[in-house]
Amino acid sequence: MSSVNSAREKLHQTALKAPASSGVYLWRNPQGTVIYVGKAKNLKNRLSSYFSGSKDIKTRLLISRAQSIEYITTANEYEAFLLENNLIKKYSPRYNIDLKDGKSYPVLRVTNDKFPRLFKTRQMVQDGSLYFGPFPDVTALDTFIDTLYKLYPLRHCKQFKERDYPCLYYHIGRCKAPCCGKIDKDSYNAYIGEISALLEGKGKETEEKLERQMKEAAKELNFEKAARLRDGIRALLIMQNQNIVEDFSSEDRDYIAFWREGELASFTVLKIREGKVQGRDNYRVTSLNEDEELMPEFINAYYGEDSELPPAIYIPTQSGLDFMERWLKERFDDKTKIVLVTEEMQDARRHKAALDMASQNAHEDIIRRLRERGDIPALQELKEELRLKKLPVRIEGFDIAHIGGKFPVASLISFYNGNPDKKNYRYFRLKTTNGIIDDFASMREAASRRYTRLLNEGSELPDLILIDGGIGQVNAVEGVLRALNLDIPVAGLAKRDEEIYRPGDSTPISLPKRSDALRLLQRVRDETHRFATSRNQRLRTKENVVSAFASLPGIGPKRERILSQKFITIENLAAAQEADVAQALGVKADKASEILMQARRLNQERKAKKEKQTLSLKEAGTTKEIAAHNEWISNLAELAES
Predict the structure, then answer these.
(1) d(CA 184, CA 166)
(2) Residue 322 has pLDDT above 60, yes or no
(3) Does position 128 have pLDDT exceeding 50, yes or no?
(4) CA within 20 to 30 Å of 141's CA: 238, 344, 380, 584, which one?
């Protein structure tokens, strides 16, 4: 029973650590056989749902039979749809049998006729017709085809026959009647060429043409037509977002990309066979080579004697391109091309999307590797470089975010064993610097509140504090720690040159670009910045949706709307006459007087805040900074004694 629980817990942990991106996941049994394939808009949420709440017997059976979960991330949900379809057909998983009908996604066919027509189909006939797709969003495809027929006067009849009189579509301007000789072959096929260019990602002019017609229709108050064209443009954008999980290129090919963190590198190889992604292989390596040397090193190791070489290998980097191709030719006597993906090449968007997908999967593998081992090499290097007494297992990082001194927020994030420990993230809504731009004072307030509380609670203290900033911010936090009689190492990472500052030393420490220690500090710094900025944005959004008029006495939503329309700003209301307010709101004079008095008080408070902020900007200087610093030290000493 314990082994069953252990396997379930392992599966659950895999689900919890999955990325919050779209993708496809595969359940495997102890023999390694794929027993279920599923897709998800959010892999973490979907996989975690298997282990929450009560589940039906089929789900419980799936979990009981599974040994491991794998996942492949994709750029969007449409690609996940297609990749799931491919993998189900490839593996025929036991628990997908009753869920899938085996249908393929529809494609758009342009017939190989003298006067072609276009339509949606699931069948491909090898008669010279052009095919575009496949398209998972059938509704968008239908809307797109309908828009094309409204924009281009193409024939609608299923079978082309010469006639003496045109049909109704000609008379309503929806067809040029090639059946009656009203348009020649070249002119008609110019429309087909434009549509083909559009579907191949070359149709910017057609997109602009649609937008012009939409605006003209709206200007003429023909809103029905404008809405129809608007929907067509939206469908067009979806059609132009070509997926890379499946296409109609007959060329077999591999896409190779990698992600690196320090000496760790993970490579992902996407194998495209017969126009479909048939596999994704992840390879973990350790290398001290520079980035430009990694790709040749990997290709040399990956393609061995028994390898199945495709006609083309697509890579994202120029380095070593020539001699890699030469090496393949000399070793295997093969004509395989190694192709650098650039913006100028044909089908650049499709190839770049495939490489992005490979890169994303390699990045996810690096995240898993760091989580599995802990970032111990980086911690050891950090201890040596900063001359710390012990390994910085617990690192806490601080950053300040504000807009012109408004909504100042300090973020506190925690890393344990070199990885984010999000349950110990905190933020501080700063009180002493609201409306004032003073990052030093903000750092002092955040640090004093954090470590005074930890002292009072007897909680565990960090092994290192990292500040997003230079020597000034570092010294400010060091002063707080001294006042609290705490011996915690402090360091600051300055963004400009990625230099490290220690308290009382204006000469920074510079680490090599490939340093594991520097990489870890950058991860902590970037996370503090992200966390602080996101909180500040939420506060600004909350403030912006609450009108200043709503804070006045006796003002509800209706009166707030009246005041906003009448006076626009609180300054205008404060300058208004009592009679104007009474008339606008339909209230008595005493009530209008009370509202006006409160509006003037609020306006004065706002002016005072602005003046205080302006004054703080003008008073920047060493004397002020020292005085403020000493005052904080004195206050903190009293706080610690109490």
Answers:
(1) 15
(2) yes
(3) yes
(4) 344
Percentage of the chain exceeding pLDDT 90:
15
Strand arrangement, sheet containing 253-261:
276-286, 264-273, 253-261, 312-315, 337-340
Residue given tokens 């909680």 in the structure block: 459
Q: Is the pLDDT of residue 410 over 80?
A: yes
**What whole-number distance in Å separates Cα of residue 575 and Cα of residue 609?**
19
pTM value is 0.47
What's the first-to-final CA gap in the chain, in angstroms? 55
- At position 7, the amino acid (one-letter code) is A
Contact (CB, 8 A) for 117 and 169? no
| Residue 224 φ/ψ, nearest 5 degrees | -65, -45
Q: Identity (one letter) of the amino acid at 607?
A: K
For residue 134, give the nearest of 109, 167, 107 by alpha carbon: 107
Which tokens go with 268? 């992902």
Q: Which residues are 37's β-sheet partners? A: 26
Alpha carbon distance 472, 515 (integer Å): 25
Distances (CA, A) of 279 to 206, 254, 286: 36, 10, 23
User: What distance lies between CA 338 and its chain's CA centroid?
Assistant: 30
Distance CA 222, CA 204 (A): 24
Are the beta carbons of 40 and 80 closer than 8 angstroms?
yes
Q: Is the pLDDT of residue 615 over 80?
A: no
**397: number of Cβ within 10 Å:** 28
- The average pLDDT across 629-640 equals 51
Other CB atoms within a 10 A radius of the CB of residue 538 amount to 13
